[in-house]
Input
Amino acid sequence: RLLELDMRRALAEGQFELFYQPIMDVETRRVKTFEALLRWRHPERGLLAPDLFIPVAEEIGLIVELGEWVLRRACADATRWPPGVGLAVNFSPVQFQSRHLVAQIAGALCDTGLSPGRLEIEITENVLIKDKEATLAILQSLKALGVRIAMDDFGTGYSSLSYLQAFPFDKVKIDRSFTCELDQSRKSNAIIKAVASMCDGLDMTVVAEGVETEGQFEALQREGCSEAQGFLFSRPVAADALPALLCALN
Ligand code: G
Ligand code: G
Ligand code: MN
Ligand code: NA
Output
């Protein structure tokens, strides 16, 4: 349990950092939102990606505390961005089991002064599998706060369509496994087009993740995606690099 002890100390000693990746408006090609992506600057092992430590944090329950740190730091960072730029934060299914989630989010908004309309909560369908009634109640409370809800990694799990009907999503993020074949496979183009058209009918925004080439971006424009995220625009960058990134992109 070395990692476990390490992680608790890391949180206390400030070894976690947030990187941000822009999500672009397809029509204007300007930054719409920054997604916060957690990193651990480990004293011996260097910069660690979340896949390496979030599962452990979930297992030991530290994710609730770590998630609160992420949310508060991200909201505080976002108050320094132009007011038109939104903030997206990832939430783990384990955080949805905490009875304090809604109060935690309301408290972070209140203490940092970030307008609720600028915050977007990203969840995967794993959140929805557990206890549908309880999850729906939480999502409705969050909507009442004025926060938006996005379904992350859309298309990779199962039963996604019934979730779109049952839960109040504002946004759907199409998993990058669909985007990477765009422009090369007629199948991917057809899938993206169909998801974009469906979401349009549901009044949900559609984001394509993992956009790496201009060809993919043009295909997204053609197929009616409203937002795009990926290395074509920028990799995730440290918070202090955002002013320069905004200048370069906008
Ligand atoms: O940053 P990267 O692309 O390596 O992220 C990998 C995964 O880690 C993604 O699925 C992302 O949703 C998840 N992730 C990144 N930051 C956070 C966070 O702050 N909280 C949670 N729960 N997941 C995160
Ligand atoms: O699951 P989620 O979408 O929250 O995680 C985002 C992850 O996707 C991050 O780890 C980020 O580094 C990665 N990512 C973002 N854009 C691209 C891209 O264009 N290509 C690839 N391969 N990965 C990307
Ligand atoms: Mn995400
Ligand atoms: Na994703």
